[in-house]
Amino acid sequence: MLTRKAIIAGNWKMFKTVPEALTFVHGFRKTAVGLDHVEAVLCPPFTALALMSESLCGSGISLGAQDVFWEDKGAFTGEVSPVMLKDAGCSYVIVGHSERRQYFGDTDEKVNRKVIAVLSHALTPIMCVGETLEERESGVTKKVVRTQTTAGMAGLAPEQAAGMVIAYEPVWAIGTGRTASDEDAQEVIAYIRSIVQEMFGAEAAGQVRILYGGSVKPENTAGLMSKVDIDGALVGGASLEVESFAEIIRVTSETKG
Ligand code: PGA
Known about the structure:
With about 260 residues, this protein is α/β, with parallel strands linked by helices.
């Protein structure tokens, strides 16, 4: 009954110039195996999107942006709209990453507006949720992910919810080398799936893809991907080198394939 195709998405954050991005694509196209079973998504900075889209042509590798504004166009200096991202060749958009929430004022309400805007342009949001270390230590992880998930997905139709991607990224695991244990990640992700079921029904919950993110590396991929509710990963640091990102995809393909 498991029909969810695994996704491995690379979040490059504020790394790589255009020439560096194109060099990566060149190497990655030669190196990556397992792409029949795993959807690979690269999320570079805005500046590299259009040229990367050209160089990914025919590779089956998808392109995503790291953020978006919810209006189509207008006097919003510095912002980029879903229309523009589509035009640049994107099919995915990361929304509500913890760094956006922490440094740039993305609230649950803003995340929801972005999710709705992305979906209304037939792009796929990768909506990030996750607790801080303090929240985990005070035992409110489930409460936090419930609030973020319900607020972020408010007002969606069940078919829209079903087509989304959610990334569970414990903030304390991002860029720190500390990962959630396979069991903890599975437990929270199963819980998020149960929230989607409460909101949108069993079919949407069975289809929505939920990723784990936070210090994913080739060495911890198999354990995480062996868990039934974990449908892939959002990878930061280890997505910047061809070898490690390709290896994460290969191991995921082997584990899920
Ligand atoms: P990391 O980042 O893999 O470097 O921990 C993950 C993310 O921020 O999406």
